[in-house]
Amino acid sequence: MRPSTLNRIDMVDKIVGSIVGGAIGDAFGSPFQNNTAPEVSDQHPWRLTDDTQLTLATCEAMIRTWWGVDPSRIAKRFAMWHRASKVIDMGLTTTIALNRLVHGAHWASAGATWELASGNGSAMRAGPLATRLDPSDPRDRDRIHDVSRITHKHLEAYAGALAIVAAVRSAWTGAWRGDENLIALVTPLLPDTLVRDRLLAIQSLGSGHSIVDVASLFGASSYVIESIPLAIYAAQKVGKLGFENLMYEVASAGGDTDSNCSMAGQIVGALLGYGALPSKWLNRLPEREFVERVATQFALIDFRKIPRKSDLGSCA
Questions:
Q1: Can you give the pLDDT at residue 6?
Q2: Who is most buried in 14, 108, 120, 209, counting CB within 10 A?
């Protein structure tokens, strides 16, 4: 399942880069959450939210199953984090699902099916699945669907999670090299959904529009039909903008800034690798040591390096 063109160092660097890049995006974008056209600056305090916390919980579950993707183990990990009050700023759908898990619900029945379940809560945590699951494989698509419906039992939410997995995997394997063709690589893998239609609509605009322009036209809220296409379109701009300026533009678009920045950061981090992330932003990352430790353990588990319990934080 690993990309044959990458050596071990490149693989690990890109995996860690994706997880840490997403955490940076989450922390950077969190102060501007739900503001309309916010004034973005470096002066605001950073904090991690459920985007990073549930991504790390997913990584921990996969570490414990030797990189395997077991929705029951992932759901159990979510419940452990929630019980320990380690997940903050959750949306309503995720909160309800995690409460149900804590009280003993089966992972396949905890998620909601209502219209609010078409948020980006399963997509924002889907990035780590890209190193193990191939979105073009029907069996792997089923597993992505299972992991998505732990919290969001909605076709659009699944399409959003699938799109993020496809985008991160394209960056990780080298299928996407930072050009403005990421949407073209992702859309053929998606089911016929509004998420796919929105991506195609944005693609038809051409590459001459800024991230803020696209958000003004199509929205930037936590609704999966707005959030995921915006994050993928933004990631396409990394070649022109670089990591930092890309994050500034996504945050300047307003809406669900922490999730949008986090998902764009996961995609771009998988392209650039950890070594290319800006050091001044790494130094500002809350809980940096813990984030990097889990990310590194997750990246190395395929090489049969057994993680210690002490490496998995207080929820172990």
A1: 62
A2: 120
Residue 309 pLDDT: 38
Q: How far apart are CA 125 and CA 165, in angstroms?
A: 10
In whole angstroms, give the CA distance from residue 150 to residue 98. 9
DSSP assignment string, 237-289: THHHHHHHHHHHHHHHT-SSHHHHHHHHHHHHHHHH-GGGS-HHHHTT-TTHH
Question: Residue 39: is it exposed, middle or buried by C-beta count within 10 angstroms (0-12/13-18/19+)?
Answer: exposed
Q: Which CATH superfamily is domain 8-312 in?
A: ADP-ribosylation/Crystallin J1 (1.10.4080.10)
**Is the CB of residue 102 less than 8 Å from the CB of residue 79?**
yes
pLDDT tens digits, one per residue of 22-40: 999 999 999 998 877 677 8
- Counting every residue written for the chain, the total comes to 316
Q: Which two tokens stand for residue 105?
A: 């619900």
Contact assessment for residue 195 and residue 229, using Cβ atoms and an 8 Å cutoff: yes
Q: Count H helices, E strands: the chain? A: 15, 0
Q: Is there a contact between 18 and 55 (Cβ–Cβ < 8 Å)?
A: no
Interatomic CA distance for residues 122 and 107, integer angstroms: 13
Tokens found for residue 216: 């003004």
CA–CA separation, 191 vs 145, rounded Å? 12
